[in-house]
Amino acid sequence: MTCTLADTALLDSATRRFTIHGSNLSPASFVQLKDDPSSFRVRYCDSDGTSREGILALQEEGATFSVDGMLVHYTDPDSFKDLGTLAPLPKWYELIIRRDAIGNAVARESAYESTQPWGQQGVEGDLARVELDIVGFGNFYTNTSNFTDAAGLQEWLRKALSKTAATFHVRALRPGSVPISEIPPSCSVDLLMDGAKVEDYALNAGVEYQPLSPALTDLSYLGPTPAYAIYTSQLPYALVVPAKDQVVLAHWDQDGASLGIETEAEATMVPFNREHRCHHERWARWYDMRQPLTEAELHAHTVQVEAQMQAALDKLAEAEK
Question: For residue 39, what are the domain limits?
Answer without folding.
Answer: 5-111
